[in-house]
TrEMBL record:
It holds the Pfam family Ribosomal_S5. It comes from the Bacteria. GO terms for molecular function: rRNA binding; structural constituent of ribosome. The keyword Transferase does not apply. Belongs to the universal ribosomal protein uS5 family. Located at the back of the 30S subunit body where it stabilizes the conformation of the head with respect to the body. With S4 and S12 plays an important role in translational accuracy. This is Small ribosomal subunit protein uS5. Part of the 30S ribosomal subunit. Contacts proteins S4 and S8. Residues 16-79 form the S5 DRBM domain. One of its GO terms (biological process) is translation. The N-terminal domain interacts with the head of the 30S subunit; the C-terminal domain interacts with the body and contacts protein S4. The interaction surface between S4 and S5 is involved in control of translational fidelity. HAMAP family: Ribosomal_uS5_B. PROSITE patterns: RIBOSOMAL_S5, S5_DSRBD.
Length: 168
């Protein structure tokens, strides 16, 4: 039974895309010199509308990336996408000093975004989007602001139901 579960976990890991957004090195001065530790920000997604982010800290880079990946797997959210592989409507996400504006785009536009927001959009499976970031250019709050925006998205059918009208 345990072997069967392990194989399922490997399959699930195989179909998810993983992107390391940022690796930070932190140092602490101790009696014998400097002691270094590392923090990693990882975005994981299935390219079909599900993605999550994780932040892990460890004394070496590979364990910090692994911790971040595990946290990202636990914090995955569902994002509604249109047939054009874009978002249903314009949305603004904020986290701390970072502010991200996400605007749907027509087919063939591509992902117009900076590196941090681009990694989130590609992991979700968005192929056509326009973005603009304001405030902080630190990748960690930008990723968090992007996920805050994506969590607010609603599909077109839900908006039609709530308003009681049909949208074209």
């Amino acid at each position: 039974m345990a072997k069967h579960n392990r194989n399922n976990a490997e399959k699930q890991r195989g179909e998810l895309s993983e992107s390391v957004v940022k690796i930070k090195r932190c140092s602490a001065v101790v009696k014998g010199g400097r002691r270094f530790s590392f923090a990693a920000m990882v975005v994981v997604g299935d390219n079909k509308g599900k993605a999550g982010w994780g932040y892990g800290k460890a004394n070496e880079v590979p364990p910090s990336v692994e911790k971040a990946r595990k946290e990202a797997m636990r914090s995955m959210i569902e994002v509604p996408l249109t047939e054009e592989k874009s978002i249903p409507h314009k949305i603004i996400g904020e986290y701390g000093a970072a502010k991200v504006v996400l605007v749907p785009a027509s087919v063939g536009t591509g992902v117009i975004a900076g590196s941090a927001v681009r990694s989130v959009c590609e992991s979700v499976g968005i192929h056509n989007i326009l973005t603009k970031s304001f405030g902080s250019n630190n990748p960690v709050p930008l990723v968090k602001a992007t996920f805050a925006a994506l969590a607010q998205l609603r599909p077109k059918q839900e908006i039609e139901r709530l308003r009681g009208v049909t949208l074209s």
